[in-house]
Write a structure and sequence with these properties.
alpha/beta, 7 strands, 42% helix
């Protein structure tokens, strides 16, 4: 509906995104943006109004997302942004820009939770798989969204976590569905923006209000 990559599409591309981050700044950042009071909108005004809200929020996020970042509709009323960053301050500025853009152009606000970490690669036994790395980042970002909601909504909470050691020899469990990989010489922009049409968002998952 929104024209963004869906959750499955993001997970399929996870290895490419991590590899691009490692070869750039060496830091990764993930933001989750959750539309505030979305259930109330659906209940009071109907699902067509809810769809309109999602379209407006998605357009604002897409327009103001940093070049080279990856944006997807993660499920329900929640959007995800993967961004190569240098530190927590850069991710915070990105989150605040997106939060303000939604508030200014859409009839709703969003609560934003994010996490960033240095990324290192290794193939020894202590290194984490692609799925574990992404799962850990998403779990921590999700916790930050809840803290933002508890702080009154329409706010941002960002955490920095310890360096992540990634086994770059592992692929996501979705890798069997992966489209052909970009050539090694591809720029970050090219890697992040080659999106197969069949991965445009279609999935939803229960969310928060």
């Amino acid at each position: 509906m929104t024209g963004l990559l869906n959750r499955r599409g993001f997970l399929i591309r996870a290895s490419q995104l991590l590899s691009a981050a490692r070869s750039s700044t060496g830091w990764i950042g993930i933001l989750l943006l959750d539309v505030d009071h979305f259930k109330r909108i659906n209940d009071e005004y109907g699902h067509l109004a809810g769809d309109g809200v999602l379209l407006s929020a998605a357009a604002a996020i897409r327009e103001h997302a940093p070049v080279g970042s990856e944006v997807c509709r993660y499920g329900g009323e929640e959007f995800l942004l993967f961004h190569v960053v240098r530190d927590q301050e850069e991710l915070w500025r990105c989150a605040e820009r997106l939060r303000a853009a939604v508030a200014a152009t859409a009839p709703v606000t969003v609560s934003v939770g994010g996490v960033c970490a240095p990324l290192m690669s290794s193939r020894n036994g202590s290194a984490h798989s692609t799925d574990d790395v992404i799962g850990n980042l998403l779990g921590r970002a999700d916790e930050c969204v809840y803290r933002a909601k508890e702080s009154g909504r329409d706010t941002t909470v960002i955490d920095t976590i310890d360096p992540i050691v990634w086994n770059d020899g592992t692929l996501s469990s979705h890798a069997a569905e992966d489209p052909p990989a970009s050539p090694p010489s591809a720029s970050l922009y090219e890697v992040f923006y080659q999106r197969p049409a069949d991965l445009v968002e279609m999935e939803t998952r229960p969310g928060r209000s």
